[in-house]
Every structure is written in C-alpha cells, then in structure tokens.
Amino acid sequence: REERQPFDFEGLLLLQGWVVFLMLGLFRFQKWGWATSNEFWLVATAGLVLFAAFLVHEWTCPHPLLDLRLFALPRFTLAVVIKAMVDLSFFTVISVLVRYMAVTRDYERSMTGKVLLPAVLAMATSLALTAWLGRRRDRKLRLIVGLSIMALGTWALSSIDLYTDKVWTAAVTAAWAAAAGLVASPLICISQEDMTPAQVASSAGIKNMMLVLPAFVGNNVMGIVIERRVDAHFDAMRQSLIPNRPPWDDVRARLIDDFTLHGADPAEAAAQASRLLGRWTMDHATVFAYQSAFQILAAILVAAAALAFLMKPLPPHAPGPYRG
User: Fold this and answer.
1) Between residues 237 and 229, which one has the greater pLDDT?
2) Which residues contact residue 108 at a Cβ distance below 8 angstroms, ignoring those fewer than 6 apart?
3) 156: closest CA among 4, 295, 9, 277?
4) Which of 10, 40, 286, 322 is least surrounded by CB atoms within 10 angstroms?
5) How many CB atoms lie under 10 A from the CB of residue 153?
6) Among residues 3, 125, 9, 121, which one has the least CA distance to residue 58?
7) pLDDT (tens digit, 9 = 90+) per residue, 76-88?
8) Distance CA 170, CA 157 (A)
9) Within the chain, how many helices (H) and strands (E) appear?
C-alpha cells in the first residue's frame, strides 16, 4: 500500500496570504492611489513578502503544495506560460465584449447571447475536431496557427465603435473562438509531454492555479486599464469641445427643440440635452478604451505565438499523449 504523503499546510497558508493581498490590491489600489498612499505600500509589501516566502518554502519543502521544481522542464514551463497568456486573453476578451454589448451598447441580455452563440458553437466544433483528429506531429503547428488567428481576431475587435454591426461582431468573435478551440487541445497535451506519470500527477496543482489566476489578474488589470483610458479619453474629448463649440451648441439646440416638442419644459429639455450629450461623449471614450484593451490583448497573443515557436521537437518515443 502506498504511503500517505503529508499535506503542505504551511504552503497553503502562504498561498492564501499572498493571493488575498493580490486581490485586495487589484480591488483597491486604483481607489487608494498607485504608489502615493500608505495603504498601497503596506499591502504591496506584505503581499510581496508572503509571495517570496511561498516560493522559498515550495522550493525547499519535500512534499510541496505546488511542485515548482517542474519548471526546470523547459517544455512544461513553455506550455504553462503560453496557457496562462491564452487564458488571460480569452477570458478578458469575453469580459470586455460582454461589457461592450450589454452596458455600452445597451443590448438586451438575449441579444448579447445571440451575438455570442456562433462563437460557442464554433469553439465547441473546433475543440472536438482537433481533439479527435489531431496528432502529436501537428500539435505545434496547430498551436501556432490558432494563436495567430486569435491575435488577428482580437486585433480586428479593436476596431469596434458605437455603430459596429452585430453580424460583424458575431462573425469575428466566431472566428476568434474557433481558433481558441484549435489551441486548447495542443496546450493541454503539450503540458504532459516528456513527463513521467508522477510528474504529470504532481503538475495538477500548478495547472489548476494557472487556469484561474491569470484570468482573474487579467480581468482586473484590464478593468483598471480601461477605467484609466476612459478618463483620459473623456478629458481629451471634453477639451476638444472648446474649439468645436459652435457645432456642439447646434446639436444641443436641436435636442432641446426635440425634447420641448415632446412635452418637456425648456429648463428640463436643456438639462436632458446636456445629459444626453455627456452620455454620448462618455460612451465614445469608453469604446476608445475598449479598443486599447483589445490591442493589448492581441499583443499578448502575438507574444504567446512567438513562444510557441521555441518548442523543440519531441524524441520519437517520448512519453505523453499521442492524440489530441
């Protein structure tokens, strides 16, 4: 009977500690101020100390919670890093797209679902086909092609604005999702190649954490980027109203006339027109911020494709899955 291994409670406590401080930082640093508040330095220092202690403990513990020694395997390390970049980009693109459609464009939830439905079907089909027909010899090629198409699709999404057609958004998202399905199976299989069964079992904790953590960090960091870019674009657009004041006043006057024609008193019509133009300006600033976010995510996918080129061919009889 196999001897039961001791559980790494110290590693678990250290992991929970630095993750809690990471969450606190991502949720509050934007409010407290980056590098300008005492709270920032307190939380950042505590989180970094716990993270460093966690790394030292996991490297030296005989039965670690996460076997960091596996990162000495170049193929495994590349697969984990590429998968983290893909997960970060994939879930963040979905999040930004939903926010764009449901909040900025005011789509009904059912309409948002209909736009994303072709993407779901495309990804499911692509994933099933590549898992069934794919083999080890074409795994790297499928990974590079899939990452390249994902990068192109993400870059294409950076052209969205307040008037982008739903059909175009659905088509681009479907192509992007099909590429994501093409990438999924190779990444899962590559992270198990040229490893013993014991190493594969030991890597489960790392793979599970790297599935959740990059998506969480990516979503929150991109949310901060979008918020800051919205403020920057909104301020720039407000300043541009000064030299463009005559056409702005003309539009406002037309809106006041329209609201007055429909029964609003002059004061309320003027206030409503100002609110509408302010919302229009803010929506444009928000879409410009989404464009910046998609461009950053496309660059991350390009970097992931470049890393995939670094994977060396496997020996003919190397252990690992043959199909998929």
Assistant:
1) 229
2) none
3) 295
4) 322
5) 23
6) 9
7) 999 999 999 999 9
8) 10
9) 10, 0
